């Protein structure tokens, strides 16, 4: 029997356009977009794992891409982090409403997200599903990231359920694949309309 809905944050609860972040940073700083590279890289993983700051992440990224002087510019690094975090703050209100309604029906609501400390410090108390969640599992607080099995197990333990009692949505297929290996009902997120159908198919 299904007991919980578990949601990722980025590109599920949030409306972040990850491809646009580099362009915004380029416009704000005057550096070419390629200076920032992909945000989904080893440096981002360390940021989400809670072992480096956002400033350190961007310093490493700029250094790697040949922007040595910029990598040491504290004001620039802070600006990049501010842009980054603000971009992830944009919420999908329809998803928030759906998740909270599921919880009101008697199901548990969980959050399972790769998330840095600096985002939580600024915005955690402003995001309704975070506040309402029966358990929120954030990577930075465990020093674990998806798709590592231990972070999924922590989420289950926090919710007090088994894997086969959970329905998990994430925008990345590798994270869903890992969840399914542990026994979760898992679906790659494509939008709230499809998610509602997928959820009902598990009940």
UniProtKB/TrEMBL annotation:
The keyword Hydrolase applies. This is HAD hydrolase, family IA, variant 3. It comes from the Bacteria. It comes from Treponema vincentii ATCC 35580. The keyword Hydrolase applies. Pfam families: Hydrolase. InterPro entries: HAD-like_sf (IPR036412), HAD-SF_hydro_IA (IPR006439), HAD_sf (IPR023214), PGP-like_dom2 (IPR023198). Keywords: Hydrolase. One of its GO terms (molecular function) is hydrolase activity.
């Amino acid at each position: 029997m299904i007991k919980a809905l578990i949601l990722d944050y980025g590109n599920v609860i949030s409306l972040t356009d990850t491809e646009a972040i580099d362009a915004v940073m380029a416009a704000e700083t005057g550096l070419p977009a390629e200076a920032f590279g992909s945000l989904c890289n080893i440096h981002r993983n360390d940021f989400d794992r809670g072992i480096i700051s956002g400033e350190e992440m961007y310093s490493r990224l700029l250094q790697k891409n040949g922007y040595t002087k910029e990598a040491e510019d504290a004001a620039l690094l802070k600006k990049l982090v501010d842009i980054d975090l603000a971009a992830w703050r944009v919420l999908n209100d329809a998803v928030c409403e759906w998740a909270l309604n599921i919880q009101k029906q008697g199901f548990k609501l969980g959050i399972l997200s790769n998330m840095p400390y600096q985002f939580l410090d600024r915005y955690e108390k402003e995001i309704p599903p975070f506040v309402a969640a029966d358990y929120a599992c954030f990577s930075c607080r465990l020093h674990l990231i998806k798709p590592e099995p231990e972070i999924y197990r922590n989420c289950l333990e926090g919710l007090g359920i088994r894997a086969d009692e959970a329905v998990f949505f994430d925008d990345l297929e590798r994270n869903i694949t890992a969840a399914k290996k542990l026994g979760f009902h898992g679906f790659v997120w494509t939008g709230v309309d499809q998610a509602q159908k997928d959820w009902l198919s598990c009940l």
